[in-house]
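ok trying this again, last paste got cut off
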Amino acid sequence: MRAAILAPVAWRTPPRHYGPWEQVASNIAEGLIKLGVDVTLFATGDSITDGTLQSICAQGYEEDRSQDAKVLECLHISNLMEQAGDFDIIHNNFDFLPLTYSGLMDTPMITTIHGFSSPRIIPVYKKYNSRGHYVSISNADRSAELEYLATVYNGLDTADFKFTEQPQDYLLYFGRIHHDKGPLEAIEISKKANKRLIMAGIIQNENYFKDRVEPQLNDQITYIGPAGPDKRNELLGNALALLHPINFAEPFGMSVAESMLCGTPVIAFNKGSMPELIQHEKTGFLVNTVDEAVDVIGQLGSINRAYCREWANSQFSKEKMADDYYKLYQQLLGV
C-alpha cells in the first residue's frame, strides 16, 4: 500500500516544540511505516521520517517568517495533488483546502479534522461530504452537518514519556499562552490554592501575555517559555497536576494525554473532549469553576499515577492510532 501523508507546513514534522498537527501527522506516518505501509510524507524540508520525504520549502513559515504562509500552503498542497495518481490513498492532515482537489482525482483521501478554526469553514467540508472520508479526533468535536467515517484519537509515542511516581510540589500550565487555554484561570487556581505554578508554552497572543499574564508573574508564578521534549518530560512528570482550565470546547488536548503518560493527573474544565480523555477521579478531575479546581487539589493524593499512565497508554498510543487508520485505509480500498 502506498500512502501519502500530508502534514501542515507551519512547523517541522515532528515539531521541535509546538505543532500539534505536525506531531500527529508524524506519528501517523511513522506508525504506518512500522505496519509495512510505503509512506511518503509531504512536509517541510527539515522534517524527519523513516519514509520518503517530499517538500517545497526548507523550513515552515512559522520558523522562517520571510515566507508567505498562503503561498507556501498552495505550493505544498498542489505538489501532492499533482502526484495523486502515484498513491493508493492520501491522508490529509491539513484542514479543508486539500478537499478542493478531491473531485479532480481518483485517489481516495481521508481527512482528519483536527478542529474547526471557525464555523465559516464548514461549507467547504459540507460540499465534499460524500468523498471527504472525515475522521474526528474526538466524539465531542463533530459537526452535525458532516458525515464521519470514524473517530480516531490522537496517538503519541508513549516511549517518549517518562513515568514519575513521586512528584514535586508544584502545579503546571503547559500550552500556548492564549485566552482559550486558560492561563489566567490557572494562575487564579494556583494563587487560591497557595501552590507554585510553572507555566510553559509559546506566546500566541503577545498583547494578552504582556497585559494580563506578565504582571502576575513572581516567585510563585513563573513563565519559562516554550518547552521541548526533554524539558516537557521533566515538567509534566514532576508536577502534582496539570492545570487545563480551558475556555473553549477543545477538540483533543495533546498535553492532557502527555501529562497522563507521565503519570500526572489533569485538572480540567469539563468542556469539549475532556470527558473522553480524562477519567474523573481516576486520572484527574473534571471541574466547572476555578473554585472547584482549587477544591480537588486536596484530593490529588487519591489518584494512582501508575493507572494514569496505563489509561493513557491504552487509549492514546501511536501504535493504536496507526492501526485504527490502517483499518480505515483497508476499508476504503476494499482490501
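PB: full thing came through this time. The chain has two domains: 2-155+317-333, 158-315.
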